[in-house]
Write a structure and sequence with these properties.
By secondary structure, the chain is of the alpha+beta class. The protein is built from 2 helices and 5 strands; from the N terminus they run H-E-E-E-E-E-H. Strand 3 and strand 4 form a beta hairpin. The radius of gyration is 38 Å and the shape is flat.
């Protein structure tokens, strides 16, 4: 093995000079950043001293946190003493609450598909003649009550607004679980 051979990982004068240059540039950046921060703090302090703080009752002598007043001021107008008429409530159109319609209000036309949570059929609304899809939920565990999966599906369909997703119009009930 040759002892006079130099390791390629050893530092030479060029590496030492470039390292010193990087350290010098880094220190310059730190000094410039500290100087900029000091200027910003001085400008903020000058701005705080030039702005008088006032409240509704006059100058604010209490301590402020983050430039915010210590008390909130009222934004709504004070009601006049002579006008004591009750305010009128705004009414918005909304669907009315009514009991669920019965499954007998629909005439089943044909069976479409069976899924994981129920059977889907095509049906015709007797009152309007409109063709709709009816889904009968599977009630395997009758002692557990209404299935959570059915509630999730109803909630998802009610929230969905898309052209490729059917619109949930209503939930209908039957007298027995097999209807």
């Amino acid at each position: 093995m040759a002892t006079g051979a130099k390791s390629r990982w050893a530092d030479d004068e060029e590496d030492v000079a470039s390292e010193a240059q990087r350290k010098h540039e880094k220190e310059e950046k730190k000094r410039a950043k500290a100087e900029e921060q000091r200027k910003l703090e001085a400008a903020e302090a000058a701005r705080q001293q030039s702005i008088p703080t006032t409240t509704i009752n006059g100058p604010d002598t209490s301590n402020e946190v983050d430039g915010r007043p210590s008390k909130r001021r009222r934004l709504s107008p004070e009601p006049s003493n002579g006008d004591d008429a009750p305010t009128k409530l705004l009414r918005f159109p909304a669907p009315e609450w009514s009991p669920c319609r019965h499954v007998d209000n629909f005439e089943k036309l044909n069976h479409i598909e069976e899924g994981s949570y129920g059977w889907v059929s095509r049906a015709k609304d007797i009152a309007t003649g409109e063709v709709v899809a009816l889904k009968k939920l599977k009630m395997e565990n009758r002692n557990d009550g209404f299935p959570v999966t059915g509630l999730r599906e109803i909630q998802t369909l009610m929230a969905s607004k898309h052209t490729n997703i059917v619109k949930l119009r209503e939930v209908v009930t039957g007298d027995r679980l097999d209807e």
